[in-house]
Write a structure and sequence with these properties.
The structure holds two protein chains of two kinds. Chain A is built from twelve helices and two strands. Chain A is mostly helical. Chain A is globular and about 65 Å long. Chain B has two domains: about 10-320, ABC transporter involved in vitamin B12 uptake, BtuC; about 340-425.
Chain lengths: ~325, ~425
Amino acid sequence: MQAIAIDALNGISFGLLLFMLSAGLTLIFSMLGVLNFAHASFYMLGAYLGVTLAATLGFGWALALAPLVAGLAGAWFERTLLRRVRPGGPLNALLLTFGAAYAIGELVKLAWGLQPLAAPMPAVLDGPLFALGGAVFSRYRAFTMAVAVAMLGALWAVLRVSKTGLIVRAALTHAQAVEALGHDVPRVQTLVFALGTALAALAGVVAAPLAVVEPAMAESVGSIVFVVVVTGGLGSLAGAFVASLAVGCLQTFAVASDVPLGAFVASLAARGGVALSPAWGTLTLAQIAPLLPYLLLVAMLAVRPRGLFGQRGDDA
Amino acid sequence: MREPLANTVTARCPSARWRACAPWLALVALFVVPPLVSALASRGAAPQGWLLASLAQAATMIVFALSYNLLLGETGLLSFGHAAPAGLGAFVAAHLFNRYAIALPLLPLAGGIGGAAFGVLTALVAARRSGTAFAMITLGLGELVAAAAWALPGWFGGEAGVGIDRASGPAWAGWTFGPDREAYCVIAAWCIVASAAMFVLSRTPFARLANAVRDNPVRAAALGVAPARARAAMIVWSAAFAGVAGTLALVNVELAAAESVAMMRSAAVLIATVTGGAASFFGPVLGALVWVAFSVGVASVSRAWMLYVGLFFIVVVLAAPDGLAGFAARQRAWIARHGWRRGARAWASGAFAAACGTLALVLAAQWAYAVRLRDTDPAAWLAALTPGAARRLAASIVVLAALAVSFTYRARRRMRALDAKDNER
């Protein structure tokens, strides 16, 4: 029982981290109509910058500076490159960000090398926060939860309360009307893109001590974030939130579980009259944990093609 | 001014037919001439092994890219998981070949059926969507298969993959298909046949319906074509040809491994098709050849090839979204309008700018890679430069980059001036 509670907490902290990524991705998508394929690359950039800055200036500075740098890089990318291809349609923009993901990956390899980087936890946050029975909830995971909640609370407040947020929300749906009122919509778009990439980079800095900081980290997280965004419904923040938590908990529980699937699969196969090799018999749920988000995606699309809270119709 | 109709037809027909045939002749020549020349030049009358291997890779990639273009070019569907049908087709073919006595030349058929089966599954979940949503669904499916290749070692063979022995199948007229030469003939012949089949498919009324769905799904639906059904059919066709391509790769290397369903392979076919140009039938062929040139040629001399591919891809998407084929067509139209002579100076400026820019980029990238990764590249000596030489190198990179920028602007100005002059007339 205690172990389940700890797993649930771990799952929620992972889910909140995923939401920091998917929130930026969703905002950018609804604002610009572009699904930023390079979003996870900015996450990786944030992680690498964070490790470097934490080693030289300290973790607190890394937490502030790495998102700033990544956000500036994102703003530059939007202004100089993305703006040029967007009139050509959403697929062109998607292709550009795909190429950018490739190039950022190579540049990161060039700058930091191929080996995984050691990302030490700050001493204050190292160690257990509390223990339930035999299971331990670490301080750092609590910290990631706190950062994510604070960040998302701030984002919500900015979008709901401030005047900039009002303009952003208006520009999401009625860009031309907002422009006619004298607001600089392209600048708002750049701002949103920069904000999204900065959020991704912040997630990277926070996740660095928990994940392996290596050139492949963008790929491994990126596709899960896309699963989250599609499952929740493209362009829906609430959907992204629910899907992030669901995927986070699903994966954490699956990895931590030792449910054997072998007997189940073998009995299914026996009923179908198929003989399976013994390798199938030893299959466990933990083994197929990496598959689960994608299975969730396929199941969701089979039942509800527009995702949880998606609004666009079939042919969008 | 109008010529008699009969006259124009007889005058144009042979050249038009010739122009339609030329790409096919070039494709056949690509697969026939280099091995023959190599065989004649070598002592044992056998073509070079590396030549056959890279040509077989090119043949595989051509079929793969053309099958991808059935989705992207004909139906407007961007897929991030096209390696899945290709790789699964290869696995199906490998298992069947090991279990039953299937002649090697018939094996791609089995792979095609395997790919098509996966295509049916894809169509079930993805055919209702297009655009970004379709791209993300295929990404999820591709990742699902890629992750399954590691999670289910029983069928995918784990790290070792599933191997075949080409010579173990039944022989045809004394050909056991064990030697590289005989396998190469199978691969090249299948490449031509599959390309021709896809060309015919792209000329059918069904493909026109797919084009209509690509351009305006709402209007197509109003005309009585179910967009989802047209997409589904094209997804299955494309997956079937992808399965053929995957099996050709299996025949070439005698192994279906986890890499053949990996995301890297999906990215490769996407890059090849887009750089070649999705709007024309032969664009992806061109793109496949460029990709093989990068991944075999450039990769053998430099670790930086992925960076070059990525930057090249970005440049193509920015400057010529219709790919190299579209770029060439636009240049041809420009020549037809202005003539060779008048455009020559603008062109020379553009080519010079491109050369300077490429040289600056290659010098900078090789230098950085040599210093950072301390490789055994041919360019590794760049890491051990004296400070003076390093300074000169840096200066020349800066000068080259500046030249590239200034000549780009000059070329663009000249082209604009010519256009403006023509518009005045």
